[in-house]
Each structure stands twice: as structure tokens, then as C-alpha cells.
Amino acid sequence: MSEKIHRSVPVRPSPTLEDLATAAGVSRSTASRAINGGSRVSPEAQAAVDAAVVSLGYTPNRAARSLVTRRTSSIALVINEPDARVMMDPFFAAVITGVTEALRETEMQLVLLMSRAGGDASRTVRYLRGGHVDGAIVVSHHKADGWTEDLAASGLPTVFIGRPWDTGLGIHYVDVDSFEGGRLAALHLAATGRTRLGTVTGPLDMTAAVDRLAGWNTGLREAGLPPGPVAEGDFTTPGGAEAAALLLAEDEGLDGIFAASDIMARGVIMALQASGRSVPEDVGVVGFDNHLTAPGELPLTTINQPMVETATKAGRLLLADIEDTRSNRDPVIFPARLVMRASTAV
């Protein structure tokens, strides 16, 4: 009986940095600088290394590269909210889409950190300061978490989506003009002839909610209307419904309500309908975000918040900050814009 002889096929070793340097005709240090994006590499040497990378099928050792460059090729997106809200609110889907777009042409990987509001924020800060990422984007920032101070002190490149509580620490941020959005909502409801107006705010430990409320009150004064009832919500649909019930208990004759998010506006409309009031015939409703597109729902008048564009800008600013820590720290503020739909029609 003949025996089959199995011969192993030799595995071709991966090309090393020395192999790359030899093929390109440059020194090992020049080859290393060329593949790591360093300076002091002539155009001719860079072209030779690039050609050798292709011909050899060279793949950089990322662990070794990290030791040399002190880079992880990762950034963190920190969301300080419960998991359920992040998964249900289209606001966060827009943020992730925008940041991903900013990284699309780079080798950066996105790390999602879910740091629950009211939880141990210091755990997240320790991770961010531990060298695991090259920078961080923080969204849904609450006053008590203390991240502005901790991250500013850490030196980690950081961009906030939404105004941080302390803007004097040099933290880069991108925001929509929430104050103007609240003001536009008040002026629009007044322009439709409504005179008894109330508002459902977001959590007042967040700058977005505070700014929208301040703009709302300014708009009421400009329209010559008295301050109406205010109820604090939580940027959820059930929270919007509960807050609307409180407004109606305070003033049954309300004929206009501004909710500081579209998700809460949905709850406001549900509460109004449950109380026998119709929208917009009895009560006009304005939201904030311009994210809801569910079929069959009443088209909502809202303040447009270009969240994808805002998050993309935040991502690009962070990439610039990582490359140059001396980059411009001026805030980027997107304008607010009223989008009129059926929920305030007259």
C-alpha cells in the first residue's frame, strides 16, 4: 500500500520594515517616518516607500507603530445617557452618522462609551486619560459629571457637541443656537395668534435645555406675552407627556406649547389628545430637532438642528486638534431655523 506524502507549503513570512527599506533603497528610519506620516521625508523617498509598500504587500505592525507615534488610531464618542434612550432617540443615531462620516477617509476607529447619567463618571474619565484613545467627542453633557474640568486638565484632545458648562477652560465645542431656537418657537406661536403659551424644557442640568428656555422667555417678552407655565422634561416621549399634563393642570386654557425636543413634542401631543384637545385647532405645538419622520403622525413644526452636520464638524475639529493641539478653539455655532408644519397651522 502506497503512502501519501504530505508536504507542507512554506508560509511566506510577512515583509519587515527592513525589507521595505531595502526595496525602497532608503534607511530603516526613513522608511519608518514615511509610513508613519512623519516629516523630514523627501518626495522621492516617500514615493519609493509607497511603491515598495504596494509591491511587497507590507502591512505596518500597529502595536509597534503605536509605541513610536504614541497614537492608538481610535477616538471615543462619549454619550452620558441610559442605553435605552440612546437606542430609541434619532438624535444619537444622527450623531454617530456624522462622526463616522468625519472619520470615513481616515484610519481612525470609533469607540462608543456609554456613561450613564448619574453613574460613575470618573470611571469614564480614567479610561479616556489612560492612553486608550487619541481624543474624545462628548455629547449629552450633564452639569454634575465634571468632565469639562477633568478633560481640560488631562490635555486629551476633546470636542463637546453642545456648549459645556464652563467655556473658559479651552474646550472646543460645536453647537446649534439653542437660545435662538427657543426664541423663534415663542415668536412663531405668538404670530399664529396664540397668547397662552407654556413650555416643556429638557433636563435643566444640560446647557441645551437652559439655553432654549432662556430664548423662549426672551421671545415671549418680545411678543408682549406674559411668562407661561414651565415643566421640566427628560428628552423622552413619556417625559414629554407627563410634563404636558403638569402644564395643563396649571393652565387649562393653554393654546400653545413649545417642547425642547421632537421626542418630547410627541408626548405632548399624546397628552393633549388624551385630554380631549386637538392639535393644532386647540393647541399649537412646536418641537426642536427636526428628526421625526414617522408615517401617520401629525407633521410637527420644529426648530431644525442639523445634527449630522454638527457631529461631522465635531469629528473634523477633533482630528485637527489631534494633529495640532494649538488649533483654534473658537466655538462653531450652527444657526437655528424654524420649520413650519401642520402642528401650528391656523
Topology, please?
Layout: H1 17-24, H2 28-35, H3 43-56, H4 62-69, E1 74-79, H5 83-88, H6 90-103, E2 109-114, H7 121-129, E3 135-139, H8 147-154, E4 158-161, E5 172-176, H9 178-191, E6 197-201, H10 207-222, E7 230-232, H11 237-250, E8 256-259, H12 262-274, E9 284-289, E10 301-304, H13 307-323, E11 332-334, E12 337-339
Parallel strand pairs: 1-2, 1-3, 3-4, 4-5, 5-11, 6-7, 6-8, 8-9, 9-10
Antiparallel strand pairs: 10-12
Describe this structure in words.
- Residues 15-69 form the HTH lacI-type domain.
- InterPro entries: HTH_LacI, LacI/GalR-like_sensor, Lambda_DNA-bd_dom_sf, Peripla_BP_I.
- This protein is of the alpha/beta class and 346 residues long.
- It folds into 3 domains: 17-69, lambda repressor-like DNA-binding domains (434 Repressor (Amino-terminal Domain)); 74-176 and 307-334, Rossmann fold (3-Layer(aba) Sandwich); 178-305 and 338-344, 3-Layer(aba) Sandwich (Rossmann fold).
- It is built from 13 helices and 12 strands.
- The protein has helices at residues 17-24, 28-35, 43-56, 62-69, 83-88, 90-103, 121-129, 147-154, 178-191, 207-222, 237-250, 262-274, 307-323, and strands at 74-79, 109-114, 135-139, 158-161, 172-176, 197-201, 230-232, 256-259, 284-289, 301-304, 332-334, 337-339.
- The strands form 2 sheets. It has a 6-stranded parallel β-sheet, with helices on one face.
- Helix 10 (207-222) links the parallel strand 6 and strand 7.
- Helix 7 runs parallel beside helix 8 (147-154).
- The chain is elongated.
- Residues 1-11 and 62-69 have low confidence and may be disordered.
